[in-house]
Specification:
Strand content: 35-45%
Distance between the termini: 45 Å
Largest sheet: 7 strands, mixed
Number of strands: 9
């Protein structure tokens, strides 16, 4: 199967959009793309997904939903697209809360929280991307060994989990 490369808009570190559009993964020095991390919260539990074993980067890793924002797309549109592609879920605007952003080596990551009831039998996994899903407590999430094998993932997961846990505690 031929993989179609996605083009991304390019930003500087201050998230100012530059005139360039590049193929994802082919960024030059001081260029950033936008990615989204989508935390799916049901009551006091998170739905996490396991990356397909066919993935080149971090196969089998447990993670939040998400992906890259493609050229011409907003971060919110990417949340809806990625959640639909990976899990077959249609997410509504009123279910989505923007949490914040942080910067990694080559991308700026927007963290989003989706709060709703998820029916596991309605979730349709995209085989190329997702091997499995599970519903975990925050305490269980911290113990998932396969979560965050790379430092970027550990940092991102810690930021995301910490923020989501704080929001849940406030509600």
């Amino acid at each position: 199967m031929e993989v179609e490369m996605e083009n991304v808009d390019i930003f500087n570190k201050r998230r100012e959009k530059l005139e360039n559009i590049r193929e994802r993964g082919k960024l030059e020095k001081n260029e950033y793309s936008i990615s989204v991390h989508v935390w799916l919260l049901e009551d006091d539990k998170l739905w996490i997904q396991q990356r397909s074993n066919e993935k080149k980067i971090f196969p089998g890793l447990w993670e939040q939903s998400g992906g890259g924002v493609i050229s011409g797309e907003t971060s919110l549109e990417a949340v809806k697209r990625e959640t639909k592609e990976e899990l077959g879920l249609d997410i509504q605007d009123e279910e989505i809360t923007y949490i914040g952003s942080y910067t990694r080596v080559k991308d700026i990551v927007d963290i989003w929280l989706v709060q709703r009831i998820f029916s596991k039998d309605k979730i349709i996994l995209q085989d190329e991307e997702v091997a499995n899903i599970k519903n975990v407590t925050f305490e269980e999430m911290e113990k998932v060994e396969e979560f965050g094998a790379a430092q970027d993932y550990i940092t991102g997961a810690s930021i995301g989990i910490g923020i989501v846990a704080a929001i849940v505690a406030l509600t």
